[in-house]
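hey team, just a heads up i'm posting the complex here instead of the shared drive bc the drive is being weird again. everything in one block, sequence lines first with there labels, then the predicted structure for the whole assembly after. its two chains so it's a bit long, scroll down
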Amino acid sequence: MKPVKVGLLGLGTVGCGVVNVVARNASEIRRRAGRGIDIVSASARNLARRRECELSGIELTTDPSIIINDPEIQVVLELIGGIEPARTLVLGAVENRKHVVTANKALIALHGNEIFARASEKGVTVAFEAAVGGGIPIIKAIREALSGNTIEWLAGIINGTGNFILTEMRDKGRDFADVLAEAQRLGYAEADPTFDVEGIDAAHKLTILASIAFGIPLQFDRVYTEGITRITAKDVRNAAELGYRIKHLGIARRQGEGIELRVHPALIPHRRLLANVDGVMNAVLVRGDAVGPTLYYGPGAGAEPTASAVVADLVDVTRDLTVDPTNRVPHLAFQPDALVDLPVLPISQAISAYYLHLRAFDRPGVLADITRILGERKISIEAVLQPQPEEGAKDASIVILTAPVRESHIDEAITAIQSLDALTVPLTRIRVETLK
Amino acid sequence: MKPVKVGLLGLGTVGCGVVNVVARNASEIRRRAGRGIDIVSASARNLARRRECELSGIELTTDPSIIINDPEIQVVLELIGGIEPARTLVLGAVENRKHVVTANKALIALHGNEIFARASEKGVTVAFEAAVGGGIPIIKAIREALSGNTIEWLAGIINGTGNFILTEMRDKGRDFADVLAEAQRLGYAEADPTFDVEGIDAAHKLTILASIAFGIPLQFDRVYTEGITRITAKDVRNAAELGYRIKHLGIARRQGEGIELRVHPALIPHRRLLANVDGVMNAVLVRGDAVGPTLYYGPGAGAEPTASAVVADLVDVTRDLTVDPTNRVPHLAFQPDALVDLPVLPISQAISAYYLHLRAFDRPGVLADITRILGERKISIEAVLQPQPEEGAKDASIVILTAPVRESHIDEAITAIQSLDALTVPLTRIRVETLK
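-- predicted structure starts here --
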C-alpha cells in the first residue's frame, strides 16, 4: 500500500517529537500498519527557529491553510494547541474531507461537539488520543476496550504538573509555593501555572473522559473545579499519619440518574495504586460493571509520549480510510444519535468522605461541640487525630475524617462549626476518596 | 443496522458470564456499536446442568459443529478452553469464513500461527483479547495503542493464582504449601495447580504478548519457565527487609539482536507499581521507546472480567465486517509478511540481578570466600544482609544482592560457592528486576 500523506500544523515540542518518532520508527510502523506514514508538509509561525528535529524532505510553510487545502494531504495533524486558529483549521480540514489527528484537549473539551458533528457529516474521523493522559491509551481503552461495560465511575491523576508538586510536597515536606517555584525553574510548570494548579487543564481532560465513558455530550462548563493551591505541608503530613496521600483527581461518577463531574484534591488510602502514582506520571482508574477496576498508567505529557499517542491515532485513521464510516468507532464512543443528556449534578449533591482540619483554642468541650454538630446531621466520624500542639501555641489542631456524606450536609455542618467561637482560623476541608 | 449473530461454543463460567453481560448491557453495547449482539445459539456437553445465566431465546445444542456450520452465524465465540476440540472447531469456523472470538490462551500460544494463517487466507479475524490478562485490554494496548513505538520490554503479573499465593505469603508470613491449600479451598487454585504455580499458564500468555510486542512468531517452546513452588516465607521476609517484594513475572525483553523470554519469580523494588499489584489482580508494564513506561492493571480472570474482553472483541469484529481485510489490525500486530524470526536467547544469556540466600557455618572467612568468588567473575555486590542466627542454630544466613549479570556468569559463581565446604544447605537464587 502507498504511504498515507500527512500534513502537520505546528512544529513546537510535540510536533518535532512526532517528526522524530515517525522517522525513527518508520520500519516498525510500516511493519504494523502495512504502509508508511509520510509527513509531506508542515506549517509553523517562524521557520527560522532552530528545532530539535530533522525537517529535510518536509515541505515547510508559514501558511497552514496551504496544508488543509492541499488535495494530496489525507490526514491533517493539528499540534498548534489553544482554541484559535486551531479550531478554524480543524474545521477547514474536515470541510475538505480530511481526517484529523489532534492533541488539543482544550479544543476538544470546548468545541468537540461542533467538530464531531461536522466530521460525521463529512464522513471523516477526528482522533484525539493524545488529548488526555499523554502517552496512556486511555481514550482507546474506554472507547473500545470497555465497550461491553456500563462504566460506573472513573478517577484520574490527569495533570502531571500538579502531581509533581504534590509528590514533592510529600517527599520533602515542603509547602506549595516553594515547590511550584522549583517546578517552574525545572520547566515542569509554566510561568503562568493557572491552568495546571487551578485544575482547568484537568477539567478539560475530565470533560472528554466523562463523555466517552457515559455517552454524554462534552460539557466543560459543568465540571466543578478546585485547584491544589491551598494544600499545605501540614495537610500532607496529617494525611500520611492517617494512612492517606493527597492527589489531585478528576472524578466522573454515576449517581442515581445523574453524573458527578469534579476536579479537586483528595485523600486516597496509601495502598491504592493511584496513591503511588508519583511525579509527572498520570493514571486513570476506570470501573466498569463487568470488568471491575482497571487502571492505565504512563507519562502524561512530553514530546515523545504524546507522539506515541499521535502515531497510534495516525495508524488507526489510516485503517479507517477503507471502513464504511457508519462502522467506525464513534468519536465519543457512543453513536452520535445515542448520546443522552444525563444531568450533571451540582457539587452540592456530590457524595464524598471528608478530611476536616481545624485549629481551636485548647480548652475542654471543643471536640464535643464539633462531634455534636456532625452527629446532629448524621455525619459519622471515621477517625480523629489530635497532633501534639506546638510549643507555646495558643491553639491546637484537630483532624477529623468523616464517612461519605452529601456535600450540602457537610456544608451545613461546616457553617455551624465555623460559628463556634473556639476556632482560631478558618477550617480546612479536603475530600476523601476510597475509590471503591 | 441488524444485530450481529453470534454462536457460542461452551457454557461454562465464562460462557455464562458473556451471556449475562451481553443481556445486562445490551443497550450500552448497542449505543456504542450501533447494532446489537445477538447470541442466537450455544453448545455445551451437558444441557441438563444448572447454569447461572438466562438461556431462553438461545438455541441450545450438544453438537458444536451445528453452530460452526450454521450459515446464519457471523461470529463464533470459542469458550471451551483446552486444545481439542477447540482447535478443530476454530479452524472449522474459519474455513466457513466466520470471524472467531476466543479466550483460549493455550490454543493461541500453541496453534496461533496455524490459525492466523488460515484466518488471513479466508479474510476473517480471530480475536483473543480475553486470552491474556482477563479484563485488562493488554492485547489492544500493545497491538494498537503502542503502534508508534519500538517496544523495548514488557514485564507482567499474568497469573492471578500465583499472585494471590505470593500476596498471602507476604501478608501472613505463611509458607507456600499452606497458602496453596487455602487457595484450593477458596477456589482460587485448581485441584491440580501445576499450570498456575509452575508458570505454564503465564508462559502461554507471555508467548502471546512477546509476539505482538516484537512481531515474532508465537513460540511457546522457547519460553524459559520457572514456578513459585520453591519460594519460602523466609525469602519473602528477606526481600521485604531489603525493600523488595517477590512477584511471579513474565518478561520479554530485547537484548542485542535477540529476545529474552522468561517466566520466573523475581524481587521488585517495593515502590514500583507492579510490586503493589496484590491478590488475584494482574498488571503488565510495557516500555516503548517513545512512550516510556506504561502499565495496565485489572482483574486477570473471572467470568465477568473475561466477558468484558470478549464483548470488546465482538464489537471490534463487528466493525471489521465492513473493513477491507488488508486494512484490519493484523492478528499479531504486525503484517503476516513482516514477522521476523528474532532469535529467542537461551536463559544462560539472559541478564538479571540476583538475590542469593545461603546458609553456612557461622565461622570467619565464609563471607570473604563468597565475595572473592563473585569478585573474580566481576559480579558486583549491591547489598549484603546477615539476619540474626536463630537460637542454637549451627549455621547462619547470608543474603546477597548482586548487580545485573549474565546468567551463565552467575551459574559459574554459584557452582564455585556451592563447592565451599562451609555451606550447610543448597543455595537459593531468585532473580531481581528493577524494571527500568
